[in-house]
Amino acid sequence: MKSCSQTCRTSYIYAMATKMSYSENVKVALQSVKGNKLRTFLTAVIIAIGLTALVGILTSIDAIEGSLNNTFSSMGANSFTIRNRGIGIRIGGGGQRPKRYQSIDYRQAIAFKNSFTFPAMISVNVFATFGGTVKFGNEKTNPNISVLGADENYVQSAGYKMATGRNFSQAELEFGSSVVIIGDEIKTRLFPNIDPMNKIISIGNNKFRIIGILAAKGSSVGFGGDKVCVIPLYRAKQVMTIQNPSYTISVMSDDPSQMDAAIGEATSLFRNIRNLKVADDNNFEITKSDAIAQTLVDNLKFVRIGGIAIGAITLIGAAIALMNIMIVSVTERTREIGIRKAIGATPMVIRRQFLIEAIVICLMGGITGVFLGILIGNLLSMVMGGSFIMPWAWTILGLSLCIGVGLISGLYPAVKASKMDPVESLRYE
Q1: What's the pLDDT tens digit per position in 132-152?
Q2: Which of 30, 244, 391, 396 has its Cβ near the most Cβ atoms within 10 Å?
């Protein structure tokens, strides 16, 4: 049994509740939350998990998209590549497999480079190995280094910059000299405290002298932009481990407005080099540089849909749990509701009080979930080569969902509380 002073004090608080402002409603809601710490904590955790999944995945996707656009924009909007197959980037089981044609051999690639007269810079490259190991002394890299054979134009056409050293000389390209330009990650791994210039490294069973170091480019969302060794094109033919390799031709037009004309002339020339007849379809693919980024971004929509689905399912579970808590709270506070009605509280005041309590619980979990989502999303993005972003849109969406879940979950209990008969409520024990 409560003392008379406690009852009088409670009655005064309830009487004031008939004309409470929203800030006062929030204070009362927080007091109610403190009285049910465990239930409130568990519900807030469920909401936080849902928003962490939602905001985290959407944040990481936005950061990855930005990284992709930056990576491929460095190659310029005036470049395209000629390959023996389509891009073929798929996420999940959707989409179609790219067509694969007869490999572009060394003779065809060089013939194109020597014969293309359109104002443009031509580069030819080929993968010598995808999983090479680079060694220097007792240090070695993981077996995930891409070794490319390339000409003098590759560094610029691929969007790299030289941090130290120089590009290949014409003599080194013609004679296939054992020289190499290494990526920034290889420098960091093998030469943390010394200058790598002119040092001899081993790539597989072959030794190369370092003549240049590429500036850090980032891992390009998992594509290993800094895990690369570039060797002269002719030398790559001698150390290649890939059977029947296909060469890639990159074309960077001097005038971006002439891209379509450059593609048209390149298509005509390469059809002649491939000995295609007029009625034959192209047995090669020409892809603009920005089309690769767009294809990757388009495929990321499946990940975005999955993230939204995971977050939505978790939030539905949180809404059900919160509604259950609010119904129990209404039942436990039946006598309190009767007292408030008896001293003048209107149904609207009762409804508003319980709705605000539900929203406060949601926001407690929502703010935590949004913070964790931003943190985890950006950490995942940085691991995959992206950069830190502040997703204001997803933050606002997450907090709006919190308020929405609170309103939906608290509406039925609030209406139930507002319809209680004050006489019957006062009799409740």
Answers
A1: 899 998 899 988 899 999 999
A2: 391
